[in-house]
Amino acid sequence: MLIFEIIKAVILGIVQGISEFLPISSTGHIILVNEFLQLQFSLEFVNTFFVVIQLGSILAVVVLYFKKLWPFDFKNTTFAQRKSTWILWSKVLVGCLPAAIVGFLIDDVIDALFYNPTTIAIALIVYGIAFIIIENMHIRVTMEKVEDIDYITAANIGLFQMLALIPGTSRSGSTIIGGRILGCGKEGVSEFSFFMAIPIMAGATLLKLLKCGFAFGASEWIVLIVGTFISFIVSVYSIRFLMNYIKKNDFKAFGIYRIILGILVLVYFNFIK
Question: Residue 34: enclosing H or E segment and its boundaries?
Fold first, then answer.
């Protein structure tokens, strides 16, 4: 029945919204939840669903940071402020280039080789340990705000983002780890990670839709719209939570959580299922 598929879409949208911007791997959560809540549609549509609901998360970033990201407000901003916005966007694009190019060229190969529970579990655990180690290093912060990030640092964060092509790594996790190593503050690198998600995730969604087409049935469109809308609402609160949390805390708790989740995924798919 359609109502059950809508309920599943709501749950999956919640999982996507919570896990996309927290450095805990949305893929790791989705693969685990989907094991128990499988959408009863074609495999092609299900794969498209998991990519397209990311649009909700993108929209959450745009809504929350609209003033900082919109360079065409000629009425309420000065020329210097608009110039600063364009510079920020140029840094974001510089950071996105490495993953965009490599992802476009070998995305299908990476999925074929690494999209499996064991790889995802190992990535969750390894990067969880990395978060704990890095936060214990007390790296000197030289770029506190997102505006302080220079082009070289943006490019280097982009190289770290390439690591997120391996499922389970977490796009936000890899960029935050990279930024912290390079001397970025918690809030600055988190915002930069949010902004980098816009072109990367929008491009991934467009690429998936072009590959699969738009010929969905009415039920599929309803499930897709519901999942995307829920993802948007939950992403708004998830982003607000993260930005409030890191004002007084570091990322070690997320590292511990990743390790626990990775162990659960590893045990379930290798010893229980």
Answer: helix 26-36
Counts for the chain of helices (H) and strands (E), in that order:
12, 0
> 126 near 163, Cβ under 8 Å?
no
**Nearest-CA neighbor of 132 among 164, 180, 95?**
180
- Whether the model clears a pTM of 0.85, i.e. scores above it, the answer is yes
Give dist(CA 26, CA 168) in Å, integer.
Answer: 8
Q: What is the pLDDT of residues 28-61, one digit of tens each?
A: 788 778 878 889 998 888 888 988 898 899 999 9
The two tokens of residue 88 are: 């920020």
Separation of alpha carbons 237 and 234, rounded Å: 5
Span 128-154, pLDDT tens digits: 999 999 999 888 999 999 999 999 999
39: left (phi over 0), alpha (psi -120 to 50) or beta: beta
| Burial status of residue 77 (CB atoms within 10 A of its CB: 0-12, 13-18, 19 or more) | middle
Report the alpha-carbon distance of residue 127 to residue 187 in Å, rounded: 20
d(CA 14, CA 238): 10
Q: Taking the CB of residue 32, how many other CB atoms lie within 10 A of it?
A: 19
Please count the CA atoms within 13 angstroms of the CA of 242 that sit on its side-chain side.
28
> Interior CA angle at 87 toward 170 and 144, to 5°?
60
- Token pair recorded at residue 244: 């409030």
Instruction: Return the structure tokens found at 167.
Output: 């499922």
